[in-house]
Specification:
This protein has 222 residues and is of the alpha/beta class. Helices cover 40% and strands 21% of the residues.
Length: 222
Amino acid sequence: MVSVAVRTHARARSYRLSLPSSGPVLTLPPHGKWVEAEAFLLRHSNWLAARLKRAPEAVNLGDGGTVPLRGVIHRIIGTGKVRGRVELSEVDGLPVLLVPGDPAHQARRLVDWLKAEAAIDLAARTAVHAGRLGVTVRSIKMRSQSSRWGSCSSTGNLNYNWRLIIAPPHVLDYVAAHEVAHLVEMNHSDQFWATVKRTLPDMERGRAWLKAQGRELMLYGA
């Protein structure tokens, strides 16, 4: 039996079934009816079953696993120490992440550390793009969205997916430029994309990477 999360989205115009890394999600429009939603889900049950068979499993973030950091693969080594923080190091000339704590909690500790690293990088790149575009950012928060890389409110509050720290730096930079540009244009019009390009002329490089490999990032910390 497969559990399907159900949510209502204010902007949804129809029923939609998606498969993010966290599991199947059935999205309903604001005035959707459960009878119709159930029928929609039943009609798409074969599609869902086929997709679930092909869906990759979440990545192991425990001792012996690997995780990219700013696009560079690092091996994860549990130190066995009760206290301490995650540290960058090298073993046999290869980059590693030394993670303390009980084995059952090492993945959580590593994710917390990755979130902190993401916050540092995204704050820096956000400040650069905000300066270039002449806008003010009120706050920056790290999120764990299963299908979004960032969001922006008209009041200057930006949310970013912490998994961007896993990708190469130019990818994180593109998302920062994208969200800051929304403080100039709260849409995806031609003027918006021109604004992104104004602060990041090489924007297509990061955008293309996300389209091609972004889904793989969602497998980390799922």
